[in-house]
Protein 1
Amino acid sequence: MACTSTFRLAFLLGLFFASIAFVHPSPHFYESFNESWEDRWILSEKDGYEGKWKHAFSDGHEDYGLVVTEKARKYAIAVELPEPIELTKRDIVLQYDVRLQNGLECGGAYIKFLRPQESGWIPKQFDNESPYSIMFGPDKCGATNKVHFIFNHKHPKTQKYIEHHLRYPPSPVNDKNSHVYTAVIYSNNTLKMLVDGEEKKTADLLSDDFEPAVLPPKTIPDPEDKKPEDWDERAKIPDPDAKKPDDWDEDAPMDIEDTEAEKPEGWLDDEAEEIDNPEALKPEDWDEEEDGEWEAPKIPNPKCEEAPGCGKWTRPTKRNPAYKGKWYPSMIDNPNYKGIWKPQQIPNPDYFELEYPNLEPVSVIGIEIWTMQEGILFDNILITEDEKEAEQYRQQTWKVKFEAEKEKQKVEESTEVTKPGLLSGLKGKLFELLRSAADAQLLSSYRPTLIEAIEKGEANPNVTLGILVTVVLFFLTVFYKLLCGGKRPPTPTVPVEIAKKEDISTPDDTITETKEEPVGGTVENTNENENENETSGEIEKEGDESSGTRHRRTRRET
């Protein structure tokens, strides 16, 4: 019986010590913000940090967080840790949740892990100059869109602190849901960064994964070394024995007149390309003292339309077969080439070796940011040595909120698709407007096609958006052509009563128009474009007549 009791006691003691061995150590620091923060967190009293913090629920959850409440403000707040936390020769996990409830266009959402106050600062004077060991978290503005990881390292020789920035950091998640950011610093100097529990980046604290690298190079260029004067860095040089050929004419032109060209038969040498419009009449109210000497507007010479050309004929040019351009000697290998000169390397006087980085302990956690958006919420700030414990916190806090937010988002999106309210009414009004536009006189030739497309969009919701975009783009294209013009209509004959010049120009101003044949289209389409441009020109002319404004006229009236 005694043996049985002894065995039972030993078994229970074994279970007890085994359970102790498998219990995760308590975190060094955890802030859930479930209780008010005023008795623990210290607001900065430094000038310029006027942003107001709020203890509030995360949108849609009964879970408190610390919230930024105002736009375009600087914020600074800090909390002292029970005792400083060493960051070297051990595993350390830094983790927190952040939710951009109103998005983030420009601002930070990072956290600073600050050095002890013995380094010469106090939380009430917390600002961007306060000494931190690590800065970690999202930052977005302009070209910047990254999850920072920056650590300050004390140079063992100069004793100065240098910021080392992670190169090629991961990007933050820029939506309005809750997200958790985790940085794990291992005892072997490896950094692992996670976003929402998913690994995004690994780096070595002592390597060139950081800019600048912590460990300096063993050698450096000798600052006293100078390149010798006779050092030749030219790999190729002009051949000194090369001679320009006797028949090389550097003055020969690139193009010459084509002496074999002949004037086309039927060329009208004595006819001008443009002539005065014989039907134009000088306006009765033309005042030569005010308007200058009246000249009839020019029109294309009808005789030139059927001829190969008018005016003085000149021979075209062609490529000169004798053209060679400027002569240069050929290049040969430089017999005196010594390569690109570099100063010799010398031992780096600032070189040092480290097994671990010199990271100062953390005694304060602070949030010091500037942002253009309100509604940034911080929650579940954690410092622990146990990566599994950090994962448990993610699952029990962030994960629950994130999944609820995603589910809510799915419901809202599905409701928006099927909801007949504002969106459907808006589409109905838009289709009605497009029907009215299709009845316009200018679009009469396109009306059957437009109506068919509009009816398809109304009948089939799956293609409604595509139909709307297509029809709207069509309208914009047609009106752009009407306003800005495709092919210009022929110059009309101007009656005496409205032959008024609409701009101020010199008497010799003329407008040369080039006729173009339609490319990739039919004559019928070209005529339709011309009709549209003529209609547009008539509308514009009527507006000009109704304005009743007298403009300065020139000698030529069109």
Protein 2
Amino acid sequence: MASDEPKDEERLAPSAPDGGWGWVVMLASFGISFLVDGVSLSFGVMFLELHDYFQDSKSKTSWIGSVLNGTYLFVGPLAGALSNRFGCRNVAIAGSIIAATAFCLSTLAPNVEALIVLYGVMGGFGFGLMYLPAIVMVGFYFEKKRALATGVAVCGSGIGGFVFAPLMGALIEAYTWKGALYIVAGLVLNGCLFGALFRPLEENFDIVVVSDSPTEGSDTGNENSSKVQNEAYKTPVPTIVIQSCSDISKSNTISSYSVGINQPIFRSRDSIWRELTPAHAVQVQHARRDISRPMYRKDIFYSGSVLNLPGYRSTRSLDETFCSTLSIARGLKTEDINVQKYVSTVQKITTAIKENLDFSLLKDPVFLVYATSCTVVMIGFFVPFIFLPDYAKSHGMTSEEASLLISIIAVTNTVGRVLVGWVSDQPWADSLLINNLSLIAAGVITALLSLFTSYGALCAYSAVFGACIAVYVSLRSILMVEFLGLNRLTSAFGLVTLFQGISSYIGAPIAGSLFDHTGSFDVSFYFAGATIALSGILCLPLRRIARWQQGREEQAGAPSNQGQDGSSLTGNSDINYSLVSQQETVL
């Protein structure tokens, strides 16, 4: 009897349960988003206190929050490499400890410069190590239900902002900003608990053969031995067959590394490993380890369900989709495999960073336009979060009312992410158009913020702004897959995050400097609104540019990397995993 969809115990990949412990991982990811974005987005409440305490300029004081936000985005590629090397659980726990330590040490800061280093750089580094593993783990545990799980997990950001903004104000009023930071540090330490819940997926397969012969059609020679061994072993051992590279390439560079599921055979693990030569065993261990590393999954940052990918619908099972979305380090040579265990940790991390930052994407006009848009928007993105409470107080609002504005942004941001997740799954939805209109609307309303002087008007602004930025955040990975293809999502996401971190550093300080020179928030909000709206305008011709590039590549006879007809699941990686026929043996 044949089965098109393999059972969980027969899957090639570590099985994504789409439930079970995955729901615990989803809630843990929610908790980390709650802590990281809750603290980051509520800095505007603390900004008022720090400005009064140190009596420094608004521009200089705003560097504290800007460096925190910028650093936690900027270290994304490094966090990904560390997660590959040490695992998401260990990296998230380490990040929580670093961030909590940074906030405690910040209370000893004698000036703004010290706070920038301790609160901004050190705290942002810890947050970066917490946040990326939280995103990655949800993608690891969910495939069919990934859109739902990701939607719930990222809601932690909005709810965190809703809770932390008034909480920060109350803590500062009761314990001063130093006492508030001690309490925040204690709360951030809960990230250790959440990180500990990031249990790695178990490998539900066994590796049994390294052979110079093709895997298909090999059942005949083993038929009799399998019957004999069947008497001793009643339960089939799922197997992965690594086809020797000598069959595939005569050079010492592996250009195609064929891995697949063969028929289950009835043998113990110990007997299998005893038959492998040391060289073979090293090769097998290397392949097995790579399958479980998160950053080798091309779809790991895709926030939607894999069922929505045309590439999935054209395959027979999730296993085939997994194989086509897995890529291993480029340029790997056979002699390198034999010495993998002797390579230093620093070299491995450096290699992983290089793999996740493919700067050749900068030659792609589609990526260049979209990356520029994402970079520009982050210049003005955090300006309202930092200066809106100060602006409200300058118009006679209380500290509680001012902090509530951040909570309103957070609430509508949460609702917006859920709605956008549903809308983007509809066949009639144009994700690019929705993204562009939302950014333009957010920019225009921010530029006009100086006209809003009543509390009701400021509440309305907060609600609209929160909903608009939710659209942008939710659609990033979906647009990257649509226009760049799934096989380039990880590299594209890494580069965009890097650029966003750089632009996040400078946005709020520029806005603060404009206030220091003019004595008014008007120009600061004009600047922020213009950058946000410009990012939406930049993407208006993106689909036309993508079609032009695709036509040019077709004329040149080169394979197109665009994802216009759905993301391509076969990529440019030097080592690809392909599924050999999956069969179910009836005893």
